[in-house]
Amino acid sequence: MALCCRALTASQRLGPVLTLTSRSAVMQIRPHCSKWSSWETLRCQRVASISPADESFTRHDNSDSSDSPSRFASRYVAHGNPTFKVFDSSQLEHLIQEARLPRRRQPRSKPRRQNDAGEWPCNACTRLLPPHEFYLDAKTRRSTWCKDCTRTKTYEYARTLRGNAARLAASAMYRSRQRKIRCSLTQDDILEMMWEQKGCCAYSGVSMEMLVPNSHWRMSLERKDNESGYSRENSVLVVAEFNTPDYSRSPGVRKSEVLGTAQWSAAKVQHVFRARQVNEDLLQLAEDIRQAREKPGCSRSSSLKQQTDADGKWQCVACGQYKYMTGFHSHAGKVNGIRSDCKQCCRDSSMRHRSTLRGHVQTILSHVRARSNTRQLLTDLDLNSIIDMLWLQRGRCFYSGIPLQYKALHVHWRMSLERVNNSVGYTKENCVLIAVEFNTSDYSRNKATTQVFGTAQWSREKVIHVWGPAFCETLQIS
Is residue 47 part of a domain? Predict the structure, then answer.
């Protein structure tokens, strides 16, 4: 699980390789390369064309579609990496035209009657089955197809382009109603986006799996600006691996505290090259780890006696201001039933603590314990085990090698905990530290009702697939 000892120095060699576009220049730096693939040519041209303004990437990417990363779609498939379908223009056009055709109207079903045993015939398979083998229908009270035939029909429809586009449009409408935001996105808009993006992810250029659910590189819907609703102008199609939650929009988060977000963008995908080349200060990391292992002492304000004034207000021992009891959190162990510091001081103190390595790790552990209790998973992690994990990884993401951030809550490349195998609990052998951008939700493991062909979970093979084989040549999986 440790990083290679050459990780900090060898990563610097990637810089010249990424900015040179001629074959002779690259062969001088990498004489061991016997082939100059089209992937390397396109990727080097893409990185060399990035302007200096792109270094400070933003969440909103309004670049022209003609310069989108889908023009530079990777076709590299590493050994052991799951393959995916690549549709050419004619195949994609045929699929979209087929999805646009109006649905054929089903002929009226024949009248059905029960037999003497109380069984009903299925209009699809013609079998006589008991009533509990049919789903209840709102109009006819009982479906004309049995449960097996209905599931087979739904299974086949979900593996068509029309079915996937309808699922994305329905999901967008459902989430809009939940969040009370505007949604004007239709099924035809999604089909138009598929054609404009040529079946590739709008951020990375990876070919999307548009037909098979529970698969790698599955197509998903993304809003470029999460402050706006689902519209044609604000939506793009990306692979599920790049569809990460935006924790900076959680309730109670102030905009002034948001320095970055876990959400991807086209500029952020390109910025990964430069982010990985940043040298990690191991001396500072060692000092942060030393401080994180030390338990902080009790503050002086906690030992002060809380006073009240003539108006019935209580004094905050931290800021000294007098406030009503509603300005304090309740505390059953106190005589007056409230904490000695006010809500604002509690929040500021919590923010300062969570902006340290010790506080960040303790927050991770609290989430681990909560999820383990809910899902009844085994866990043997503690503060020292996660800190040891961070040092073994030299402060870098286990998947991408990007330096992890742990001194701010809402920032790019924030440190998070990942289970390599989601069927196993939070154990030392099954957990690694990664950037929160690579910590995607896995809805296929242990939850899927149909066959699972892949998952949206990241791995080093997927990182190599997106950013090239040389990107992770210095990383080793122990």
Answer: no
Q: 3-state class of 452 per DSSP?
A: coil
Q: Which residues of 9-29 are buried (b: 16+ CB within 10 A; e: fewer)?
A: eebeebeebbebbeeeebeee
Phi, psi of 419 (to 5 degrees): -90, 125
- Return the pLDDT at 180: 92
3-class DSSP state for residue 301? Answer: helix
Q: Which of 228, 260, 256, 230 is nearest to 247 (CA)?
A: 260
What is the band of 111 on the pLDDT scale with cuts at 50, 70, 90?
confident
Distance between CA atoms of residues 473 and 328, nearest Å:
54
Q: How many helices (H) and strands (E) does the chain have?
A: 14, 10
pLDDT at site 282: 93
470 found inside a domain = no
Total-model pTM? 0.74
Rounded to whole angstroms, the maximal C-alpha distance in the chain is 86
**Main-chain dihedrals φ then ψ at residue 133, nearest 5 degrees:** -90, 5
Q: Which SS3 state, helix, strand or coil, does residue 183 take?
A: strand
CA 134 to chain CA centroid, Å, is 38
Beta bridge partners of 342: 328
CATH code for position 325 = 3.30.60
Residue 328 lies in a domain: yes
- Is the pLDDT at 164 greater than 90? The verdict is yes
Average pLDDT score, the chain: 79
Domain hosting residue 306, numbered range? 300-353
DSSP 470: G
- Rounded to the nearest 10°, the torsion over CA 89, 94, 99, 102 is 140
Number of domains in the chain: 1
Q: Does residue 46 form part of some domain?
A: no
